[in-house]
Write a structure and sequence with these properties.
Layout: E1 4-13, E2 16-24, E3 31-37, H1 52-60, E4 64-68, H2 78-100, E5 102-112, H3 114-125, E6 132-136, H4 145-148, H5 162-165, H6 184-196, H7 199-204, E7 231-236, H8 244-256, E8 261-266, H9 281-297
Parallel strand pairs: 3-4, 3-5, 5-6, 6-7, 7-8
Antiparallel strand pairs: 1-2, 2-4
């Protein structure tokens, strides 16, 4: 399949250019758009982690895909990361029709893991609201015990020392790199945060034990209202990174508020299950359901 790619800088902070890759099939017709947000615990990853087979599915379904970077923690704290999501969304709405021929009234947001969390944030922190959200193994609560207490799964690994963890950080904004050797140091920092139960403090810049109210604005599950966008939640029941319960609780809150939603619970699947590719029937079926959900929500 022929897919064009154009890279734009949607925002500049000091000398840091925050970029987006726009993908579309040939043709000049106006198309609906997907704003795609990468995962990596808000610490790692970048826009290039969008899997090629998933991109092809979205393009074949008739969407323009905009994969964005955003500034990462711990150099940048959570409130500024959310500012980047707001600015990226505003840029797509304001510039997309002219620059890459999208319909600004038909935008869906899709993200994985921390990108799934940011997707759920986009359900209430950007205006006008997206037409649909798809969150792969995302989370609606960032101060629950799963993130703010030492994690039993990650404490099975050799403990990361504070000296090793503190090699990450500084004053210069950072927008990431593809997963692999370049991000290993940042993964060690993430591992330290999970082992010590300090991710909210390190990423948010506030201590949830002392400033719990500050986090309310950054927990999607506390901000669901009846006008929250139609939402699709996808989560493996054997996820050892983001508890399956996070999507289950979010689904319950969406139901309580009367929000259209679809919750796909995958028995036997773990975090990043979709990395197995479209040759896996479970992954292919999930993407069939995503396409149907998007076509209905963006019609």
């Amino acid at each position: 399949m022929e897919i064009s790619k154009q890279t734009y800088t949607y925002k500049t902070v000091g000398e840091c250019q925050i970029q987006a890759d726009v993908y579309r099939a040939p043709g000049n017709e106006i198309r609906p758009a997907i704003l795609w947000i990468h995962g990596g615990a808000l610490i790692m990853g970048n826009r290039e982690t969008l899997a090629a087979d998933q991109l092809e599915r979205y393009i074949a379904a008739g969407f323009v895909v905009i994969a964005i970077d955003y500034r990462l923690a711990p150099e940048t704290k959570l409130d500024q990361i959310i500012d980047d999501i707001r600015d990226a969304y505003a840029w797509v709405r304001d510039s997309g029709a002219e620059k890459f021929r999208i319909d600004p009234e038909r935008i869906a947001v899709i993200g994985h893991s921390a990108g799934g969390y940011l997707t759920l944030m986009a359900g209430f922190c950007v205006m006008p609201r997206p037409r649909a959200l798809v969150a792969f193994y995302g989370y609606g609560d960032i101060v629950g015990a799963w993130y703010s207490e030492p994690d039993t799964f990650y404490r099975q690994f050799q403990l990361v020392t504070e000296d090793e963890a503190r090699h990450v950080g500084g004053e210069t904004p950072y927008t990431g790199a593809p997963f692999g050797s370049a991000s290993e140091t940042r993964f060690r920092f993430y591992l330290y945060c999970r082992q010590q139960g300090i991710w909210p403090s390190e990423v948010g810049g506030h201590d949830p034990a002392q400033e719990a109210d500050w986090f309310t604005a950054y927990c999607p599950i506390r901000n669901v209202t009846p006008d929250y966008p139609p939402t699709m939640l996808i989560h493996g029941e054997q996820d050892t990174d983001v508890p399956f319960e996070q999507s289950a609780l979010m689904a319950n809150e969406l139901a309580r508020q009367g929000v259209d939603h679809l919750f796909i619970a995958l028995a036997g699947q773990g975090h990043g299950f979709d990395g197995k590719g479209m040759s896996d029937p479970i992954v292919a079926n999930v993407f069939d359901q995503i396409e149907a959900f998007l076509n209905q929500s963006l019609a």
